[in-house]
Structures are given as C-alpha cells and as structure tokens.
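Can you make up a protein sequence with its backbone structure tokens?

===
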Amino acid sequence: MNVAFMKHELNLMLKSKKNLLFLLFLGIALLIYCFILLPNSQTDSHFDREQVEYTIGEKMAMQEDRERRGSTGYIRYTMAPVYAVDQFYIDIHTKMLTALEEGDYYRFLHLQTLYISTNQANFLLEDPRFFDSPFPIKDRKHAYYQTLLKHESLLASGKDVTPALIEEKTTFQALSNLLLGYLPFILLFTAIFFSSDVLIRDKHNKTIIQGVPIPWYRLLNLKSAIAFFYTLIVLSLLFLFGALFISIQYGWGSLTLELPIMPLQQTFTLQDYDTMTIGTFLLTTMSFIPICVFLLIRLNVCLNLLVKNQWVVLVISSLLLFSEHFYFNRTTRELFGYEVSFFPQTYFDFGKVITGEKSFLINLETITYTRGIMVLLITILIVEILLFFTAKYVNKRRFYK
C-alpha cells in the first residue's frame, strides 16, 4: 500500500500544471544563463583589449611629452615616479597584448598576475560596486586578495591555461560562482514551490485520500518523502543539463582548481586567506542542499495543516527563506539579542558560509560549516516536534472537513 500511494503521489507531482509551468520557467532561465549571461559575464580581472590599447596610446603620447620636457623623474610635491609607473604599464600591457595575439595564455596570465600584485592601490578603483559600500577600502582589498589567489593558484596548478579558465567560465568554475551568488536561494525556493500544495491538493479528491488505509502521520511522511526526492531529482537534472550546456561551450574545467577562502577575521590581510579545491567546495556545499530542502518541505507540510491555502503557504515559506534580507546589513551581528549564527536562515546562503564570505561581510568568525549543520539539524528537530503535535491536533478528519 505504501508503494502504491507513493506512486500515486509521484504521478500527481509529475502531472501538476503548477509544477510543469515552474519547470518551464526554470528551463528558460537555465538557457538564458548558459547562452546569454555566462558568455557576457566578466571577472574582476577582465582584460578589455580595446580599452588597454587606447590607454597605451594615451600614455605613450604623454611619455613622449615628458621626455621632450625632460620630466622623467619624480613629481616634486608627491615624490611619485609617474614616468616610471606609466612606462611599466606600457611595457607589461604591450607584452600582455602580444601574448594574447600569440595564444600564449599562460604567459598572459603570468604577466597579468604580476601587474595586479604590484598595483593593489588602483585595483577596481573605479568599480561602481564599491561606491555605496559602507567599507569600500576593505571590500576592494578583499576582491584584490581573492583575484590574486585565484591567479596564483591557476598558475601553480600545472593546467593548460585557456581563456575560459582565466574568465572562470568552465563548468565547475561557473557552478562555484553561482553557489556563491543567489543560486542557493533559487534551489531552496524550488523546494518550497513544489511542496506548497503537498496536502492541500488532496482536498479536491477527499474521498480517494480518506479511503487510503494509511495512518495519518505516516501519510504525511510519505508525502514529504516523495516531495523531497522529486525536488532533488529535478535539481539534479537542472545541474546536469546546465553542466552539459556550459561544457559544450567552455569545457568542464577541473575539480582540483582552487578557490580563495577566508577562515580567519583577524588582520584582514593576505595572511587571513587560504584556498580550497573546487571539488571540496562543491562536495561541502552539496551537503547543505538535502538538509535545507528537507527542512523546508517538512515546514511546508506543517503549514499545509494549519493554513490550507497553497499560496499563503508559499508566501509564508518564502518570507522565511528570504527573511535575512529584511534585516541584514554589514553591522548586524545580533537578532533578538542572539548572535545571527544561531539562526537557520543565516545558513541558507551556504556557499558564502563555506568560503568565509558570510563571516567577512559582518566580521563574525562563528558562522562556520559545522555550526551551520548543527543549527539546521536542531531546527529540523524542532519542526518535526511541531509537525508531530500539529498532526495530532489536525487529524485526517479535521483536515478534510
């Protein structure tokens, strides 16, 4: 009977118009990202050939004027060696252009890394992302250290350097960057959407469900299990198709490439940083997904019993998912008098938790992988207790009344 009921539930989810429309939306979004957004994305160290050629021309004209005037030394008041600095820019960027023309991407990356390592003060100086930042200098230095570590690790990896690797567009690099962005929230919202009507849809088939000889609480567990596995299968297929689309264009990349992480928040210099392989990052990140998906599905089952309206359930669960965005700022370290590391919504952005980005944003070292898993498991236990007693109060007869 359990197997037959699970097949029935799976069939309902597969044929649900709501789910099919959402799958269509996800498919379109996936295609837009793979074939439009990713090809046009740029890293912090993006090399704009036309802009560089124009800048070289300008600086060469100024150098000729300085030589004609004999102004090739230091500026008297600032003691800045402008002539030498501009000549270094011209020389190293001319070599970069030559390396690109010859297809020697390893040499290009080596030269670019050398230039970045000697030019921290001007790195992303005009980037509008930092204009509204409450800590612009700190954030620029953070981006600088991350870029430097990425380049140095790629040079030391022994891999065949390609434009796709430099621009972080290979499959594994793109997936890592997505998990450090808004992808975790999209994945978890998918779980919420699919399970928002896990019980409510049965109110249209009261006689069929009421006649099923399965205890009420076990029925809730079976419905949760089907929603859980259905969600994971959908997410796995989306990952698979996305990986195939990206790999066709840019290749798979390598799981041994390294990502910068920030395990410490002490000096805010390069000493606080370390690296982690993409394979380790993805494996650690993926451990959060089933835990968070299960938590949100069980929460939705509980809300289904209490609210009995799928759209209200969807709104409530979505508000809980995105609740951190309502109060988060760079100085918020406590909520209701407790440190934010004790709240489960802090760990829904799990990609940033693993790399230490979350801790960096609010200067808090307690937002860690271990604490995140513990907080989420404790939250699941609390939800399970609530669901057990809610199911006792809202039994099958009362729910379908």
